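Journal club prep, notes for RB
We'll compare a predicted complex against what the paper describes. Inputs for the 2'-O-acetyl adenosine-5-diphosphoribose case:
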Amino acid sequence: MNSFDRAVSLEDSICEAAAILARARHIACLTGAGISAESGVSTFRDALTGLWSTFDPQRLASQEGFAEDPGFVWRWYMGRLAQVEQAQPNAGHRALAELERRTRTFTLVTQNVDNLHERAGSQDTLHLHGRINTFHCNECGAAYALSDEDRIAGLPPYCIHCGGWVRPSVVWFGEMLPEYALDEATRAAQQCDVMLVVGTSGIVYPAASLPEVALANGATVIDVNPEPNPISEVANYYLCGTGGVILPALMNAIVRVDRG
Ligand code: OAD
């Protein structure tokens, strides 16, 4: 039974969760698209505004879709890149950067490709699903530096080494996650005393397994999300609200704990 089921008020739940975070030696944090929603970056599965409610993920985020229409896929990612570059980190991103600064060991694991955590001051973020502003050849894997012309081209550029199509370095459906990031994220889930989860629907694996690993290893799991989800159902604390509101409130409560 978590804080939501115990009918503890949100304010009391934030105070309890803050006391646990303030004492923690190792905090792991898993973020999803929801933390960037208040920066104006679209989520994937929110019913009206989510990208996958408007666009077919099989056409845009798979090898099959890329092979069928590379120009369509390229233009869509160039549009998303422009959206992400215009976005600014929000109060939720900044609160996590602050939490990292005051915690002995802090492992930030994100499914987001937008780099807003880094721009808010977070260090050493593990990117499970890649980054939208880096590019490589779909055939030989060689890194590619994007030019201004590439951004407005109707087709992806060709690799200068093998002539293959260049693509954004994001993980598509059916592809392996970056091994180092996944290994380190799993290690953090096994070793942390608290896992803070923010803004993920908790249905895309293996990322969604990290809170399960943390729980199985005795960690306290705190979920921040305006909507109940599979993680909030098993978390010790479900803080119902947006990242931009709940995370600064948590940080303020942690500061109060610190001051005694
Ligand atoms: P989803 O779009 O699946 O879920 C977004 C979650 O954020 C939902 O649970 C919302 O309730 C929540 N949310 C919305 N606004 C919020 C806010 N302001 N503050 C906090 N939470 C909010 O996004 P992800 O779980 O990140 O994969 O999706 C996982 C993966 O599925 C993505 O990384 C992407 C996608 O296919 C790849 O691209 C490989």
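Talking point for the session: Residues 32-35, 37-38, 43-46, 50, 61, 111, 129, 170-171, 198-201, 204, 225-227, 229, 242-244 surround 2'-O-acetyl adenosine-5-diphosphoribose (CB under 6 Å).
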